[in-house]
Design goal:
Blueprint (H helix, E strand, L loop, with lengths): L1 E5 L2 H17 L4 E4 L6 H9 L8 E4 L1 E3 L10 H10 L6 E3 L8 H14 L4 E4 L21 E4 L2 H7 L12 E4 L2 H5 L3 E6 L5 H9 L17 E6 L9
Parallel strand pairs: 1-10, 2-3, 2-6, 3-5, 6-9, 9-10
Antiparallel strand pairs: 4-8, 7-8
Protein name: Glucosamine-6-phosphate deaminase
GO molecular function: glucosamine-6-phosphate deaminase activity
Family: Belongs to the glucosamine/galactosamine-6-phosphate isomerase family. NagB subfamily.
Length: 235
């Protein structure tokens, strides 16, 4: 696991963009994408670039259960707004949060991942160490699944909603085992609130209580983080 310390989110986004360009130059065809505030500047760098994504496929980590793709808080809407409307891909895949049979939707999404192996996966990390919506206690063997969001995650996401009670309580998320199939992983983290999670991920025991700690076992992980986020690391 390589840790790159940057001054701020803009510098981190530029480092992430350079890694993406290198991966594409080396033949990457499928990108695993994340939502939330962390990767927004990274997507801005992509939009401003002359990179062509018309032959690329994207597979997103997750989606809230119950939100239509046209809902402004859905991850479909987020991805269209921040990336897809400006940089069309050949194909874009996100879980369907409105599926009538959520378990069947999760299985179908596993099949999509199997058919489109992820070359380059972008991740953020939750304050409790979650990656995707894989909350503490999630099995490392879990593939795409329906998640009951923890209270800390609901509170963290409430800033995007008018009222906290509007925050969905469930999501469909790529599982930890699914994420670990990616050829390379770039995880971004900014701010002091992520410092405990970064320490647990990089230096802590590998445990399902800290989902991101499993990344210690992955062959190609780059962590891009600011000084506040790496502030508790001992090395």
């Amino acid at each position: 696991m390589k840790v790159i310390t940057v001054k701020n989110q803009l510098e981190g986004a530029k480092v992430g963009f350079d890694l993406l360009k290198e991966a594409m130059d080396n033949g990457a065809k499928t990108l695993g994408l994340a939502t939330g505030s962390t990767p927004v500047e990274f997507y801005n760098q992509i939009v401003k670039s002359d990179l062509d994504f018309s032959d690329m496929t994207s597979v997103n980590l997750d989606e809230y259960v119950g939100l239509d793709g046209s809902d402004e808080q859905s991850y479909h809407y987020f991805m269209n707004k921040h990336l897809f409307n400006e940089k069309p891909f050949k194909e874009n895949f996100l879980p369907n949060g409105k599926a009538l049979d959520l378990e069947a939707e999760a299985k179908a999404y596993d099949q999509i991942i199997a058919e489109h192996p992820i070359d380059f996966q972008i991740l953020g990390i939750g304050q409790n160490g979650h990656i995707g919506f894989n909350e503490p206690g999630t099995s490392f063997e879990e593939t795409t699944h329906v998640v009951d969001l923890q209270e800390s995650t609901i509170k963290a996401n409430a800033r995007f909603f008018k009222h906290e009670e509007d925050v969905p309580r469930k999501a469909i998320s790529m599982g930890i085992a699914s994420i670990m199939t990616a050829k390379s992983i770039v995880l971004m983290a900014y701010g002091e609130s992520k410092a405990e999670a970064i320490k647990g991920m990089v230096e802590g025991k590998i445990t399902e209580a800290m989902p991101a700690s499993i990344l210690q076992k992955h062959a190609d992980v780059v962590v891009i983080a600011d000084e506040a986020a790496v502030g508790l690391l001992s090395k």
